[in-house]
């Protein structure tokens, strides 16, 4: 089966990928709750969240399941915002957000033409 109808292989795989991403997120959240805040540099949380979201969508792309444009953009924003915060450039958060969202809007027609993003169920 190559469709994502309920019960199809792609639907089941997507559910497993999403469950794995949620598992990683919860493990990271628990780790941050156990470790004192001053021990972890600012920005690491955002970088972790961004990597999980981008990793999920990278796995979807690899298995030819439609990626989520929303979580891809959020993953990029989180990753870049975390890197900026890690290097002490936290004042770029708002500006960086606007630049990335603007770039996404410009590139959105290309993404739609390539059919990279959409609902996983539509793959």
Could you walk me through the main structural features you see in this protein, from its secondary elements to its overall organization?
- It is a single chain.
- Helix 1 packs antiparallel against helix 2 (44-62), helix 2 packs antiparallel against helix 3 and helix 3 runs antiparallel to helix 4.
- The radius of gyration is 16 Å and the shape is flat.
- The protein has one domain.
- The chain has helices at residues 9-34, 44-62, 69-86, 93-114.
- The relative contact order is 0.15.
- It has 123 residues and is mainly alpha-helical.
How is this fold's topology laid out?
Blueprint: H1 9-34, H2 44-62, H3 69-86, H4 93-114
Summarize the structure.
This protein is mainly alpha-helical.
Helix content: 55-70%
Ranges with pLDDT <50 over ≥5 residues? none
Strand content: under 5%
Indicate the radius of gyration in whole angstroms.
16 Å
How many discrete domains? 1
Distance between the termini: 11 Å
Order of helices and strands: HHHH
Number of strands: 0
Main structural class: mainly alpha
| Main sheet attributes: strand count, strand direction, barrel closure | none
Please tell me what the overall shape is: flat
